[in-house]
Design a protein that fits this description.
Layout lengths: L1 E3 L6 E5 L6 H8 L3 E5 L6 E2 L4 E7 H10 L1 H13 L1 E7 L9 H15 L1 E6 L2 H18 L4 E3 L8 H9 L7 H11 L2 H5 L3 H5 L6 H12 L4
Parallel strand pairs: 2-3, 5-6, 6-7
Antiparallel strand pairs: 1-8, 2-4, 4-5
Length: 218
């Protein structure tokens, strides 16, 4: 773990792949000092206890479908204690239903203890990152620390990991789900009867999973 003393200005460590983003441009406009490094966990580090993952709405949807966001949340929580996911925009490309979108957010909050913050655009994402960093570094006087190593997981492992968070779904059943439906997207759009047909999955759990994917958020 590499510690960095608290500076007079608000210091934010950003992944070097974010260097040319508008978010970094706006962070500098707000007065933040940026340090660019290749981060294994998260996109922005604002203290030794808080890590932030930033996603466009399109990338957020893609990460729900392939299970990547749940793996990322797990790594941030494991290494920093507090995982924050900032999403720019809304679910508007039609690749998953609104119920599945909100269900994934609920899973991130309840199962991974992650905060999910929706903002309108990159400027508002930068504003939120700056304000969070300011609170951590001035009000709570927390230093910044670079830490964290991702556990190597391939795509199939991430998909199984995501499905294993559903009611009554073991690693074996999650594998059967993927073998039957071919993708998480197909499972999300399956009927209740199709979900019930998965070997080893109890009928009441199949019903719960169908409701998670399809009931309105209210």
């Amino acid at each position: 773990m590499q510690s960095i003393l608290k500076p007079e200005r608000i210091l934010i460590i950003a992944d070097d792949r974010e260097k040319n983003s508008d978010v970094c441009f706006y962070l500098k406009e707000f007065g933040a000092a940026l340090s660019f490094k290749r981060l294994d966990v998260g996109d922005y580090i604002i203290s030794d206890a808080v890590c932030i993952e930033r996603k466009s709405s399109s990338d957020f949807v893609s990460s729900i479908i392939d299970g990547r966001i749940f793996s990322q949340a797990e790594e941030m929580k494991r290494n920093f204690g507090k995982a924050i996911i900032i999403v720019e925009g809304n679910n508007s490309d039609g690749r998953i239903t609104e119920n599945a979108y909100k269900g994934a957010i609920a899973s991130l909050i309840m199962n991974y203890d992650s905060a999910v913050i929706n903002v309108e655009n990159e400027k508002e994402a930068a504003r939120m990152i700056y304000l969070l960093a300011k609170k951590e570094q001035t009000e709570f006087a927390r230093p910044i620390a670079i830490k964290g190593k991702k556990k190597p997981k391939d795509l199939k492992e991430m998909q199984q990991f995501f499905l294993s968070s559903l009611p009554g779904v073991s690693s074996i059943i999650s594998k059967r789900m993927l073998e039957k439906f071919g993708s998480i997207k197909n499972l999300v759009n399956a009927s209740e009867k199709e979900i019930e047909s998965i070997k080893g999955l109890k009928k009441n759990n199949a019903r719960k999973i169908y409701r998670i994917f399809n009931e309105r958020w209210c």
